[in-house]
Amino acid sequence: MKFGLTVPQFGDFGDVRKLASLAKDAELAGWDGFFVWDHILLDPRAQPMVDPWIALAAIALNTDSIKIGTMVTPVARRRPWKLARETATLDHLCRGRLILGVGLGAPPEWEFGVFGEEEDSRTRADKLDEGLDVLAGLWSGRPFKYQGNIYRVDEVSFDPTPVQKPRIPVWVAGGWPGTRPFRRAAKWDGVFPQSSGRLEGKMLTPHDIRDIVRFVKAHRSDNGPFDVITAGVTTGLEHLADTKKVVPFEAAGATWWLEDVSPFAAGWNFDGPTHGDRLAARVRGGPPRL
User: Fold this and answer.
1) Nearby residues of 147 by Cβ (< 8 Å), 6 or more positions away
2) What CA–CA distance (Å, rounded) separates 14 from 150?
3) Which of 274, 254, 252 is nearest to 263 (CA)?
4) Residue range 146-172: average pLDDT?
5) 102 has which bridge partners?
6) Residue pLDDT, tens place only, 112-142
7) Higher pLDDT, 144 or 261
């Protein structure tokens, strides 16, 4: 199992330099991945907020070996050809360490509706599916054209292609027990399941992960590498208790544990105290490695 961090790009972490410094601390502490959230307006109170892609460029230049990426990018909010250029460029900048996490984006009323964009989940899911097709086609570097219900690309080829072959890994997020996100994930390189009841405090269990692994395997068309990501909170202080928490998820088939160092994991609310120093200390405490 590998260990990463899922880090917001707002509030205490709404500073590009601070994120780049925190990513270096994570690398030195032995974490395997550093993944920033991709929001544009999570909530008007979640300020300050920085652009995750500019932050990732700074992170790429300030680290050497740790995997980096977004967790997750709402592809429906992007023009896929622009995202293809950005991700290929970033993959060169970090020398092949990029992972692209994708999903629908939430909450739709702030991330989409306030800007006059489509909030409907089915429409955003269709944009995600077609956008991923376009991304893969443009990443290939071969002549590519596309005609979908939403996007059209006349024949074109993009150069340079990403460093990683056959492409930048794509991890697909989705709420369990829904099925469409997991059928989608089976076509790509990893799945990042979320509990559909997480806002009510319901978290995924190792049993859920086992069911998800079984479902995705049933819909995979090849036997290539595939990551199963789970997220949670450990103390960084009680190693035995931390590893006991992680072990059942690995046994269930998870290949990555993402430590949630968001303010929400610390019980933060928009009107309460900040937790930046405590969360940064958790990063420096290192992963709950088995």
Assistant:
1) 153
2) 33
3) 274
4) 98
5) 73, 172
6) 999 999 999 999 999 999 999 999 999 999 9
7) 144
Closest CA to 58 of 85, 34, 83, 82: 34
Query: How far is the C-alpha of 1 from the C-alpha of 250, rounded, in Å?
Result: 7
Q: Which residues contact 220 (CB under 8 A, 6 or more apart)?
A: 186, 226
Per cent of the chain over pLDDT 70 is 94
Can you tell me which residue has the tokens 């989409």?
Answer: 112
Do strands 67-74 and 152-156 pair parallel, antiparallel, or not at all (unpaired)?
Answer: unpaired
Lowest mean pLDDT among 62-76, 90-104, 268-282: 268-282
Amino acid 230 reads T
Place of tokens 């992960």: 209
How many CA within 13 A on the CB side of residue 194? 21
Q: Are strands 152-156 and 144-147 parallel, antiparallel or unpaired?
A: antiparallel
Element (H, E) at 30: none
Whose structure tokens read 């103390």? 235
CB-CB contact of 19 with 88 (8 Å): no
- pLDDT (0 to 100) of residue 273: 60
DSSP state string for 163-221:
SSSS---EEEEEEET-SHHHHHHTTSSEEEEEETTGGGT----HHHHHHHHHHHHHH-S
Query: pTM for the complete prediction?
Result: 0.95
- At 197, which amino acid appears? G
Q: Which helix (H) or strand (E) holds 241?
A: helix 239-252
Amino acid in the structure at residue 95: R
Query: For the residues 193-205, what does the mean pLDDT come to?
Result: 70
Q: DSSP letter at 101?
A: E
Residue 226: which pLDDT band, with cuts at 50, 70 and 90? very high
**How big, in percent rounded to 5, are the helix, strand and coil portions of the chain?**
40, 20, 40
